[in-house]
Amino acid sequence: MATKKSEEFDQVDWNEISRSGRFDLSINSIGMLVTTLPLVLLAVYDWQFLGERTPTFQFVGVDRGLESVDFFFIFTLLLAFWFLVLPLYQNPRMTRYYWKEFKQNRPAVVSLVWLGVVFVGGIVGPIVMDPPQQELLIAYQPPVFTSVVDTTPATCVGEVMNGRCYGTWEHPLGTTNAGKDVFTMIVYGMTISMQIAFITTTIVATIGISFGTLSAYAGGWVDEIMMRFVDIILSFPTFLMFLLILYIYGGGLGMFIVVFSLFAWGGTARYVRSKSLSISEEEFIKSSRISGASTYHVIRGHVVPNVASSIITQLTLLIPGFLLFEAQLAFLGIGDSTVPSWGQLISAGRSDLSFAPWIVLAPGIVLFLTILAFNFLGDALLDALNPEAEAENT
Amino acid sequence: MTSDDQPLLEVEDLTTTFSTDDGTLTAVDGIDFDVETGETVCIVGESGSGKTVATESITKIIKTPPGHIEGTVRYKGRDLLSLPESELRQIRGNEIAHIFQNPQEAMNHCYTVGWQITEALQIHRDVSDEEARAKAVDLMDRVGIANASSRFDDYPHEFSGGQKQRVMIAMALVGDPDLLIADEPTTALDVTVQAQILRLLDDLQDEFDMGVLFVTHDLGVVAEIADRIVVMYAGKVMERGDVLDIFDRPAHPYTQQLLECLPEFGGTGGGIPGTLPDPHDPPDGCRFAPRCEYAEEACRTGEQPEEVEVAPDQQVSCVHYGPGGNPSIVRSEGHGPGDGATGGDSEVGPADD
């Protein structure tokens, strides 16, 4: 079964996936449907049959709950797997080509590795590591290889020499004022960051691309109305809106993601529209129409794939904004303080900055590196996916 | 198949206008022509004379609005202009295929050339991927691409300009069209490749038994490929006829001057003074009158003159050949293209009637 499947995978490629004239589903869509179904069933089960406080997997004895954000996150991961990773595997030739182009950019390769670490940490970390426990006795442990005056921690876990408490591998990045392990919290924060990155990107991409292409192809007054709507979206004071929602409904992570991504697709839609318009003037669009292709076929098969390369870049560059914004809100104390995000950690450590700087610095540096990595990555993707942009520079 | 008395394509009084901010622009103004199975008809004229718009109006790929197409286009007896879009889609690519001027731009760089060749086939017919591939490889082979089966999975940027044009031809032929519309297919290519492509088109025409409507501004290409010529200027037909007749005895002053631009046909290689008239506001009378050295008062009033038969199957729209006109004004002054040539193979004389 497994071998047969991998053979099928080899035969399918992007070319075929985009062929929309006929309605046979690609292996990717089938895979997506098959894997989404249990997820939806699980979500419905969790929502309808389990109490608020009952963990989702109680029936198998695992004491861990899934929230709605987690369901969305898993859904976007599935999307990314079936429609991003698998196509790369199916079309090894283009993948090799992209990789060749991509790896010329050293910082981007390092960034990719770093983001890979954050991604894997965010997915695997919470599964293998216990959540950080409050242990007031071991508060303010210094990170490994560093030391603080031994009066800072209540009890020093490591060695005490010359009146200084040394850090240990038990708490490689130290502990917080509540004795929680900073490293564990950062790993848990990775999950939050990846959830923000994946879910916002999916929402923004879906709305932005469909809105943009629709607007470009409808033309006339439909286009006019849609674009004025985008203007409204772009000029909407999302932050105030979020504050309002926060005071009325309370602001969890899900609320943050939904509110901010629902008001962030304006730029993408506008970009997609202008790109679609310029692409629809291309000769190959005419050539496809002249071969008898329907408008739907032209858009799906020719316009969207050509827009995609620029959109991937644009979306990659959108993610850092969300991560930073979440951190800023958390730092200001707006938002759900139970969400173990990096921003919350920084926020929690800010009053202890003078004597326990690692509580702020560790997550701060991780946040900084992640945002930097996304920016480098976006830049490199532009070069790799859109050789024309590069050709113009040389 | 078409019956013998019915042309493959019959265009009557085709008028294409565009609404622009400056008013209505008339790109094609009531032209007629027809194409028979197996023959090559060339539409000739300088840039901006409406050749491309005319061919694109045939299958209505002009965007409407702003475009507006009137007249009749009968393909195998069916009026294409009155067909709904869904039926037109069945004809495009399947029965009437196009080749474009610039093969670099006419291909989507996201896809392999194989995908693009089979695209038209899979839109129209329910063929399996293997069949489509086999057919495309066969076509690529026939249009002269070496190692067709391995090049099937290559991307357009991996092909040279001439090879891309060959691929374009394969893309056009994949649906076994009965009419091939080639819009300046050799303009973007260098002369040696141009000759190869023309020869290829010629061979394929015989093989597929197609009618070919060939658009070009290059009379050198016309001489090589055409059976009949339609000379267009500013949206109107100036002259039409058999290729040899027109090259030997061009009747219309515009045709004469076009031929004179070609050194290889004994012309001086000079240009035609003046520019095309404003398509928003075409001149009264003959469109060419403002640039014509033989223009008289009669040329500048009324409509474009009726086409007059000056020789068997050669018609010209010029006042001087019409009733009350004197053809010798145009023909005797020694502006025939043969005059400068040493061979003197073209005999310029008064009209036969």
Automatic annotation (TrEMBL), chain A:
Cell location: Cell membrane
Region forming the signal peptide: none
Pfam families xref list: BPD_transp_1, OppC_N
Keyword terms: Cell membrane, Membrane, Transmembrane, Transmembrane helix, Transport
Spans traversing the lipid bilayer: 25-45, 71-89, 109-129, 192-217, 315-335, 355-377
Keyword Plastid: no
GO biological process: transmembrane transport
Keyword Translocase: no
Domain ABC transmembrane type-1: 190-378
InterPro entries: BP-dependent_transpt_permease (IPR050366), MetI-like (IPR000515), MetI-like_sf (IPR035906), OppC_N (IPR025966)
Topological type in the membrane: Multi-pass membrane protein
GO cellular component term of the entry, any: plasma membrane
Family affiliation: Belongs to the binding-protein-dependent transport system permease family.
Name assigned to this protein: Peptide/nickel transport system permease protein
Naturally occurring in which organism (per UniProt): Halorubrum xinjiangense
UniProtKB/TrEMBL annotation, chain B:
GO terms (BP aspect): peptide transport
Localization of this protein: Cell membrane
Protein's name according to its UniProt entry: Nickel import system ATP-binding protein NikD
Span list, region Disordered: 303-353
Record carries keyword Lipid metabolism: no
Start and end residues of each ABC transporter domain: 9-259
Chain segments annotated as coiled-coil in the UniProt record: none
Main location: membrane
EC number: 7.2.2.11
Keyword terms: ATP-binding, Cell membrane, Ion transport, Membrane, Nucleotide-binding, Translocase, Transport
Keyword tRNA-binding included in the entry's annotation: no
Subunit structure: The complex is composed of two ATP-binding proteins (NikD and NikE), two transmembrane proteins (NikB and NikC) and a solute-binding protein (NikA).
Enzyme class: translocase
GO cellular component, one term: plasma membrane
Catalytic activity: Ni(2+)(out) + ATP + H2O = Ni(2+)(in) + ADP + phosphate + H(+)
GO MF annotation terms: ABC-type nickel transporter activity; ATP binding; ATP hydrolysis activity
Lineage: Archaea, Methanobacteriati, Methanobacteriota, Stenosarchaea group, Halobacteria
Membrane topology listed for this record: Peripheral membrane protein
